[in-house]
Amino acid sequence: xxxxxxxxxxxxxxxxxxxxxxxxxxxxxxxxxxxxxxxxxxxxxxxxxxxxxxxxxxxxxxxxxxxxxxxxxxxxxxxxxxxxxxxxxxxxxxxxxxxxxxxxxxxxxxxxxxxxxxxxxxxxxxxxxxxxxxxxxxxxxxxxxxxxxxxxxxxxxxxxxxxxxxxxxxxxxxxxxxxxxxxxxxxxxxxxxxxxxx
Length: 198
Hints:
- The strands form 2 sheets. This protein has a two-stranded parallel sheet. Strands 3-4 form a two-stranded antiparallel ribbon.
- The relative contact order is 0.18.
- Helix 5 runs antiparallel to helix 8.
- The chain is built from 9 helices and 4 strands.
- The chain has one domain.
- Helices cover 63% and strands 6% of the residues.
- A hairpin with a 7-residue loop joins strand 3 (147-149) and strand 4.
- It starts with a helix and ends with a helix.
């Protein structure tokens, strides 16, 4: 969902008169924390799928660690309002993951509806480090991956409320960054008009 949200934000920003080069002018504090969170989470996924036992044994802690690193990155950029939306979405995901043993519960019925039956088999076999099957005993199930985007959506998936908020935060962040010069231009015009009256 994050990839599609980013693409949507870039296209929308361009349609609204924004500039891609403006993205390079936005300062991201401690950007390496976002990269580290990504590496920890998807590195664990790869290691578990490759059958590395020690990673499988500690995958719960690695998944939680990736979120803690992500929180540090988000909060170091809290001057951007959109980061608070990303933080809230990440926090909701973190809570349901932590309270259910370190893996995000996901609706297997939802996966069937999206045609992702291969993931059902992988999850049932415990081969996916980040997810587990949603059951009757799942706590805070409404925060789990239960929102289904079925076909004909080209990237059919099952996601959570937290995922939606994270995607929304990214879209807002990209929009504001791309339209930065446009907003600054309006501000300069206002100052110019004000000075011309003096």
